[in-house]
Amino acid sequence: MTVSNNKPVSGRFLTLEGGEGVGKSTNIQFITQLLADKGIDCLVTREPGGTELAEKIRDLLLSEHAEPVCEMTELLLVFAARAQHLEQKIKPALESGKWVLCDRFTDATFAYQGAGRGLNQDIIRTLETLVQGELRPDLTVLLDIDPAIGLARAGQCGAPDRFEKEKQVFFERVRQGYQERAAAEPGRFLVIDASVPLPDVQAEIEQRLLQSLDLGEKA
After folding, report:
1. pLDDT digits (tens, 9 = 90+) for 110-149
2. What is the pTM of this model?
3. Which domain holds residue 100?
4. Which candidate, 196, 134, 146, places its Cα nearest to that of 171?
């Protein structure tokens, strides 16, 4: 894998994906500790966000506004935050040999802005290439759950943001978008059933992630 400026990438790039209420925050901590136990110190970050400027764009994306946010504005803001995040944090870490674990990445854009909002996926692919070059995640853990269950869980975690206020049908499209991405790239995705009890979710993550990363025998 190479970054857009053709420098070789020696670190590994892992992402965690899923809709609302799947338990990403809890499980990204679990994965971080799992890798630490194998002697791998990861840079943990998130999208949108990850840098001071990108976090300000995140606030714009998640907050309510007096005027409606058009779909193309939303998409361009997502990629603006991503461009900053990549140049300031992700690429330098990978080029230095560090592993990166990111809470959501471009698969979320295809799911939320593509499937959810109905934006043309060819436009998203064009922006993906423009902003990322050849850089793609090495492995993606997708936490999958029925949106009705996920939204009920998310509703217990505080006031909803602009996305969380969408109707259930929106999140059903998002889930379908994620599932289509996973079906198209089965070698990259680990699809985990997030509806079962947390210990079962984490047991499956541990087994499949370590196997996929060939870390099962390391002390």
Report:
1. 999 999 999 999 999 999 999 999 999 999 999 999 999 9
2. 0.91
3. 13-212
4. 146
